[in-house]
Amino acid sequence: MTETQHFEVVVIGGGSGLTAAYFAGQDNRSVALITDRPEAIGGTCVNFGCIPTKTLVQSARAVDVIRSTASFGVHVDLRTLRIDFAGIMNNMRAARADNAAGARRWVESAMTPFFSPVRFVGDKLLETEDGRRITGDKLFIASGARAAIPPIDGLADTGYWTNEDVLELIEQPASLIVIGGGYIGVELGYFFAALGTEVTVINPDDKLLAEDDDVRELFTREFGKRARLVTGRAKRATRTDAGKRVEVADGAGHSHSIEAEQILVATGRQPNTQSLNLAATGVQVDERGAIQVDAHLRTDHADIYAYGDVIGQGMFKHTSSAEGELAYRNSQNDDHRADRAMSYRANPHAVFSDPEVAAVGLTEAECDKQGQDYRVSTLHYADIAKGKIVGAPAGFAKLLIENDSERILGCHIVGPDAALLIHEVVVAMNTTAADASLVRRAIHIHPSLSELVGTLFDQT
Ligand SMILES: Cc1cc2nc3c(=O)[nH]c(=O)nc-3n(C[C@H](O)[C@H](O)[C@H](O)COP(=O)(O)OP(=O)(O)OC[C@H]3O[C@@H](n4cnc5c(N)ncnc54)[C@H](O)[C@@H]3O)c2cc1C
Ligand SMILES: NC(=O)c1ccc[n+]([C@@H]2O[C@H](COP(=O)([O-])OP(=O)(O)OC[C@H]3O[C@@H](n4cnc5c(N)ncnc54)[C@H](O)[C@@H]3O)[C@@H](O)[C@H]2O)c1
């Protein structure tokens, strides 16, 4: 039997797992990093998620800019517009390979890597596929999530793409069915539609995304100008002579049939816990397979922490990184004060589609459900000076403030640079009182889009 190697810190997962590994390295701990995809160090974000997809979205934005110049008195001959799809994809893949190689070099120099799938074979005891055994004082599980494929009859035989497959394309599809109108559906749907693919998005609800209702309404209306939207659930997929067909049940007893060259499935994520044999070490998962953690990101095992997509609490890179630092710090300190608890109250997110969406805090529906005493205010881009200058795009910012306390409960922005604009509100919400006066006191540059937020707060 091989000898078990012991480390002070053991991390499973080469994505946001690198955050805990980084902070452990800063503390001069011995660190083992175990990950099953050595060619994809950096994980989903670097290789199959945030970075490559936003690189593609940037090309879509470039096309949009060119198409919109006439309204600023600049005329280009759109007949000369040529999309080098293979070039766009190759550039994205080259940048991705560079990022992953850089991350791998760092891992190999800063810690002890094990490039293998791993599973628990005992209490805090891990085994790689080739039989190497690893244990540690503190363990971190950051094994992420993968595309969840819903039970659609015939889908496997018909063939479909996930977010990973799409990144390998060389040829642009002429038409595409996107199953799921969430983050991935509308970001990749935007990319393909802007480049000229005929896109159909199938979503159970007639409004896309899981945002504040007003945001969903405007987003769906605007996105619907680019793509065909079909309300219902994909139930069955088949091959046709020309491509693929999906049958959709709309919930009212009707069904539609949609045909396209290809299918992209974007219906959520499934935590990677099944193959870890967590029962061997006493770590519990919930009904979705997500690891259960307390507010300090500790699992049911006192020395094992979990964070990132595998705990399923807001599957974002920035969230995973924040959790990773906190989990590591908590593991080195038995002091379980409230300020060491992970807070998602001011955890923002953005959807990089068109229009762009960003939000932090509660939606109006959540405020109502919680019985909050609050007021709402909305300001449109077209109502501020810079908004007019940039062409009065459809979009607005919406603020929810608690009466009496003036505490910011939530803010939602849909329109250009939403992801940038939300940060002023995120900072204000991170103060102890989350008091709106912080933003009101700030002087906002005129004319800039930041006045959308400044004026919104002034008027609320
Ligand atoms: C298409 C797409 C676009 C996205 N865009 C954004 C965005 O714009 N902004 C944003 O904030 N978030 C975005 N996200 C979400 C973001 O990518 C994730 O929240 C984040 O990458 C999660 O990090 P993680 O470390 O939890 O998981 P991962 O990065 O998936 O890392 C998990 C690691 O564990 C390894 N692993 C799994 N099981 C085992 C095992 N048994 N043994 C060994 N290793 C194992 C995996 O190979 C992987 O390296 C996007 C996601 C997708 C899919
Ligand atoms: N910008 C970002 O931060 C970003 C971008 C992409 C992905 N992500 C992360 O990745 C996660 C996964 O993204 P996603 O888009 O796959 O999931 P999602 O949860 O955002 O959306 C999935 C959508 O698919 C729909 N759906 C489910 N079953 C269906 C069926 N049979 N037919 C039709 N529609 C169906 C759901 O109702 C939902 O609207 C996100 O939740 C997010 O955490 C983040």
From TrEMBL:
GO terms for molecular function: oxidoreductase activity. Its cofactor is FAD. Gene3D superfamilies: 3.30.390.30, FAD/NAD(P)-binding domain. Keywords: Disulfide bond, FAD, Flavoprotein, NADP, Oxidoreductase, Redox-active center. Pfam families: Pyr_redox_2, Pyr_redox_dim. Its EC number is 1.-.-.-. The keyword Transport does not apply. Residues 348-455 form the Pyridine nucleotide-disulphide oxidoreductase dimerisation domain. Residues 8-324 form the FAD/NAD(P)-binding domain. Belongs to the class-I pyridine nucleotide-disulfide oxidoreductase family. This is Dihydrolipoyl dehydrogenase family protein. The lineage of its organism: Bacteria, Pseudomonadati, Pseudomonadota, Gammaproteobacteria, Salinisphaerales.
